Amino acid sequence: MTGRGDRWAELTGGQAGEAYAQRFARLAESGHDIHGEAAFCAALVKPAARILDAGCGTGRIAIRLAELGHRCTGVDVDPSMLAVARRNAPTQEWLLGDLSRLDTLGLNPGFDLALAAGNVIPLLAPGTEPAVVRHLAAVLRPGGLLVTGMGLDAAHLPLPEPPVTLAEFDRWCTGAGLTLRQRYATWSGDPYSPGCGYAVSVHSRPTM
């Protein structure tokens, strides 16, 4: 998760990596499918796609996508999260950085897909959200996709109330030159309807 700046740091103190990894390890051991986001993204791209996991956290999604044959780069602002990612997949590319300064990390553009899962957008530092969306759009190739997952109510957020609405998010995407292609209520592809507590959105960069 992460890539998040102030709200994430306020929640965790920057020391969440090991606890976060253990949480998903327990879910996997109990039989839960912890790879829904990776499966969702893999279905949208061709083999060996270039994927940016923005706010990659412990690398759970990026590592799974690499196992599926894709070329993944993970970026996160939380060193404790990246420490777990680097330990679990030392040959993958993991970058420490704030998503609001993504343009300073030296990334080569041309990604087929940029992913911001796990409430990355709602947990960004207040006021940085439009810039983050612009930076993510800028690293995409023409026709590339921005895939996001975000809670829309307290039940789906580690916050008492949602700091971001879908209307605001869509406005930032439009401002960055992106077009909404699809929206779902879950990573399993359940239909989205107004009032859902979670939204998985697929925006695309124009081909021309």
Automatic annotation (TrEMBL):
It comes from the Bacteria. The keyword Methyltransferase applies. The keyword Isomerase does not apply. Residues 51-144 form the Methyltransferase domain. InterPro entries: Methyltransf_25 (IPR041698), SAM-dependent_MTases_sf (IPR029063). GO terms for molecular function: polyprenyldihydroxybenzoate methyltransferase activity. Pfam families: Methyltransf_25. One of its GO terms (biological process) is methylation. Transmembrane segments: none annotated. Keywords: Methyltransferase, Transferase. This is SAM-dependent methyltransferase. It comes from Streptomyces lacrimifluminis.
